[in-house]
Design brief:
mainly alpha; 2 domains; about 10% strand; flat
Length: about 170
């Protein structure tokens, strides 16, 4: 293990983030959320998000699409299955009947304490032995890196759109 820690000192940032993400996923599998519930990995991640977010605010399909950066059709399929299996229900919103609020059912609510406890244990483990100032700096750097990637993605999408429009003019 010490060997990998030494190599990480000179490793590319993207690789390090990928490895950390992979370790978190492995940890989540080991602490599997209600394995007898029959949820897939994607369904578990989305249920975690719904259960944690609904503590503070309403959740809509668009929130899930943005949080996980996945397509509308993918989210629709997952939500349909979660609804069919009794984990969520969708309610119309008074101000706009087209909007459907996603609400956890009683079956899903039984998972919330387990999710919160797992999250708490993971956060404690991640920050173990790291001074608060370093954690603050890390959060700031991660936010900027994320912003850089989002900006670059927007620029690439715009460039691709411009190229397609130019190609369409030539035809």
């Amino acid at each position: 293990m010490q060997d990998i820690e030494c190599r990480m000192e000179t490793m590319h940032m993207g690789r390090m983030i990928h490895m950390l993400s992979h370790q978190l996923k492995r940890r989540n599998v080991l602490e599997e959320l209600a394995p007898d519930e029959g949820l897939t990995g994607s369904q578990r991640h989305i249920m975690r998000f719904i259960l944690l977010r609904t503590l503070h605010t309403d959740v809509y399909q668009k929130d899930i699409e943005e949080e996980f950066r996945i397509r509308k059709s993918t989210v629709t399929g997952i939500l349909k299955l979660l609804e069919k299996n009794g984990f969520i229900r969708r309610e119309s919103v008074q101000k706009d009947a087209r909007l459907k609020r996603i609400v956890p059912t009683a079956r899903a609510e039984t998972l919330r304490p387990q999710i919160q406890e797992q999250l708490k244990r993971t956060e404690i483990l991640l920050m173990e032995g790291i001074p608060e100032e370093e954690i603050r700096v890390w959060r700031s750097v991660m936010c900027r890196m994320f912003g850089n990637l989002v900006r670059a993605e927007k620029e690439a999408l715009k460039a691709n759109k411009d190229i397609k429009e130019e190609a369409g003019k030539d035809e």
